[in-house]
Amino acid sequence: MAKTRGSAVVATALMMCLVVLFHCKVAEAATYTVGDASGWTFNMVDWPKGKNFKAGDILVFNYTPGTHNVVVVDESGYNGCTTPSGAKVYQTGKDQIKLVKGQNYFICNFTGHCESGMKIAITAT
Ligand SMILES: *[C@@H]1O[C@H](CO)[C@@H](O)[C@H](O)[C@H]1NC(C)=O
Ligand SMILES: [Cu+2]
């Protein structure tokens, strides 16, 4: 009897820990609107500066569909404004993209846009 009650207490304590951990994890994820009020547009290169991004944080890219897009690229795609084959393209105008740990690179691949600073590089810890 006492043994059973003991296990129940341990199980309850474990469950509480899990609930707390899960809660913290959820609370930690942040959502960022790229470009803030301007939305996803030109000269975005400095927007990530001074922000503390974490893996799992969400970026929201707001723009008029058909005028821009968001392409997930690699470092050379970011530096050279090129689109790697098989790159994922978002184009709804309110795209939500979850950051992965490490480097995350996004460009708009409409002709000339990335060259005009429509690109961001983010390091998520
Ligand atoms: C943008 O990327 C898509 C997907 O790779 C590609 O089909 C399209 O041609 C690219 N646009 C430009 C202007 O490079
Ligand atoms: Cu664009």
UniProtKB/TrEMBL annotation:
Residues 30-125 form the Phytocyanin domain. GO terms for molecular function: metal ion binding. Transmembrane segments: none annotated. Keywords: Copper, Disulfide bond, Metal-binding, Signal. Residues 1-29 form the signal peptide. Pfam families: Cu_bind_like. This is Basic blue protein. It comes from Forsythia ovata.
